[in-house]
Amino acid sequence: MILSLDPVIDPLGIFLLIDFYAIKARQFSWFISFFHEYEKSRNLIQLPNFAYSLALAYFHHSQENKNESEELEAKADEYLQKALIMFPGILLPLMDKCSIEPDVEISAESFFIYSQL
Questions:
Q1: At a CB cut-off of 8 Å and minimum separation 6, what does 77 contact?
Q2: Which of 4, 61, 96, 102 could disulfide-link to 106, CB 3.0 to 4.6 Å?
Q3: At the top level of its lineage, which domain of life is listed (predicted)?
Q4: What is the mean pLDDT of residues 99-105?
Q5: Residue 97 burial (CB < 10 Å; 0-12/13-18/19+)?
């Protein structure tokens, strides 16, 4: 509702919040549609929150729609890979939050060594 007041300028920064609220409200299909509607004009995939939230939305949407599960899971995997390529600095904090130990190869990468300092 607030975004509809001025979606071009977005003076309140709703694009930085809307993914969180859509995922929290379990509006996965809506969020996916929203993303694809605004992606061309706003280049939303360049925002880390949208890159990761889109993958998460596709994953949860696949869990709710068993008849389209494989296709939606493939989309979730694709968008997660894109998010990790564009924003790799999120990998280690994400793994830590999930209580997953990083592989030795990942830990040895110079990018991640400096991000842990």
A1: 55
A2: 102
A3: Eukaryota
A4: 90
A5: exposed
- Name which of 37, 97, 56, 2 is nearest 10 in CA terms: 2
- Round to whole Å and give the CA distance between 49 and 20: 8
Contact of 18 with 50, CB cutoff 8 Å: no
Average pLDDT, whole number, for the chain? Answer: 89
Tokens 């509607």: give the residue.
Answer: 37
Neighbouring C-beta atoms of residue 83, cutoff 10 Å: 23
d(CA 94, CA 6): 33
Q: Looking at per-residue confidence, does 105 or 28 come out higher?
A: 28
- Residue 85 in 3-state DSSP? helix
pLDDT tens column, 86-97: 999 899 898 999
- 86 contacts 51 by C-beta, under 8 angstroms: yes
